[in-house]
Amino acid sequence: MVSRVIPVEPFDLVIFGGTGDLARRKILPGLHRRFLAGQVTAEARIIGAARSQMDDAGYRKMVRAAIHEFGAPEDQDKAGIDAFLEILRYVPIDARGENGWQELAAHVRPGLVHAYYFSVGPGLFGDLAERLHSHGIADENSRIVVEKPFGHDLESARALNATLAEHFRECQIYRIDHYLGKETVQNLMAVRFANILFEPLWNAQYVDHIQITVAVTVGVGGRGAYYDKSGAMRDMVQNHLMQLLCLIAMEPPSRFDPDAVRDEKLKVIRALEPVDPHHIVRGQYAASGEEPGYREDVGDPRSLTESFIALRCHISNWRWAGTPFYLRTGKKLKARSSEIAVVFKDAPHAIFGQDAGQHRNILSIQLQPNEGMMLDVTIKEPGPGGMRLIDVPLDMTFAEALGEEIEDVPDAYERLIMDVIRGNQTLFMRGDEVEAAWAWTDPIIEGWEARGDVPKPYDVGSTGPEDALMMLHRDGRRWREIK
Length: 483
Ligand code: NAD
Fold this sequence. Notes:
Elements: E1 11-16, H1 21-36, E2 45-50, H2 56-70, H3 78-86, E3 88-92, H4 101-107, E4 113-118, H5 125-134, E5 143-146, H6 154-167, E6 173-175, H7 183-193, E7 207-215, H8 224-228, H9 231-249, H10 258-270, E8 280-285, H11 294-298, E9 308-313, E10 325-330, E11 337-344, E12 362-368, E13 372-380, E14 389-395, H12 399-402, H13 412-422, H14 431-451, E15 456-458, H15 466-474
Helix pairs in contact: 1-2, 1-13, 2-3, 5-6, 6-14, 9-10, 9-14, 10-14
């Protein structure tokens, strides 16, 4: 099988914040890869727009360096980079003032798809939206891409939605959550909704529980000031983990179209029960030896912000009544690993003398560091030892079966930017979804703030605070290993 790349139509993409970290690390190397794959053609134009004063040549030099630093080793061919740089332009712009806007207007070609990527701090989203309109740059068919964080709580998210809605319709707004752009996340939908095998078992009757873990080994890095005002709940759970939860738990949409899918995700968020404070464990990585702790990293010796959170939540609907969903995310943990695990119940009757919980079917969807999908099935251990059971993983990524087909797997940002150009919002969050997620998150945060809850310390390189282990232990369950 040979992979098919269908070029997207010619477009103008303006990257506000085109000199920033995200643009250099993800957006521009990603566009370069799509260019090499033939999906972005030489007719496209990518316009960096940011505060720094530089010309096209200076910008191209910066982007070349970014591709060298952050692009894949196989994408470093000079001719390919040169050709890509040809489609780049740069306009110095002030989001809060008038400088640069006329020049930008002159760069945007009439009659093409226009996309504006807001890769700047959220404080500038409103300014950009307003100026795109007042300078007559955006039209009915323009799209805007907005980065996280989308609000800090329900009130700020509502205000942001309202500001954007003054200038753009919902069908023009692409709220990006790069977890949704991952190949495996989409494969999860295919596995669920294109097979008859899983859906009959996908409910409280057959699923014991579901775990979603997003663990990283890094600390807050240079983002300490931002992170300390946010914490793991706002930075990770409200968006990424919640989106994964929705895809796992939603009802089959009637068709694979943006609103049908997002309607179902919204229903899941709205059906989430408030979380009992006893089912939340917050943690902060502690200093050890030379290694600074969270409080040193953010420069606040009294910070009460969590760098780790584990919680148990429930979805009150017919499908999931009584099934716990355990969510866990944290920094400076043992390994970088993101996984969704659907843990099925025991077979109803043990004819091989197996103990309860000893052999279970587990569907594990790995998102990081390597994407993949495995189904643990119990079989007889081969050999003369009688009827001994072992669990073996069935690889459902089917990498070998598909051969060449999977050589060109776009990364999450690449796929999502191509979806923006194609005008497909399926993998982007709708305004009401984001608000519903905050409506569930806000009371949880308010609860621990009111109680003056102090996060539990945990060791760097561990799996989080002991209390998180105990939370599952009390339920007679165990966290999946972080490896
Ligand atoms: P950054 O600070 O590295 O870059 C900010 C960019 O905005 C620069 O290009 C700067 O010139 C431009 N800018 C700032 N003020 C401006 C103004 N008044 N007028 C015009 N341009 C202005 O930030 P970043 O890390 O690239 O993040 C950008 C956005 O993406 C933020 O909202 C961030 O939360 C989000 N985000 C970043 C990452 C990441 O990995 N860096 C990941 C997820 C989300």
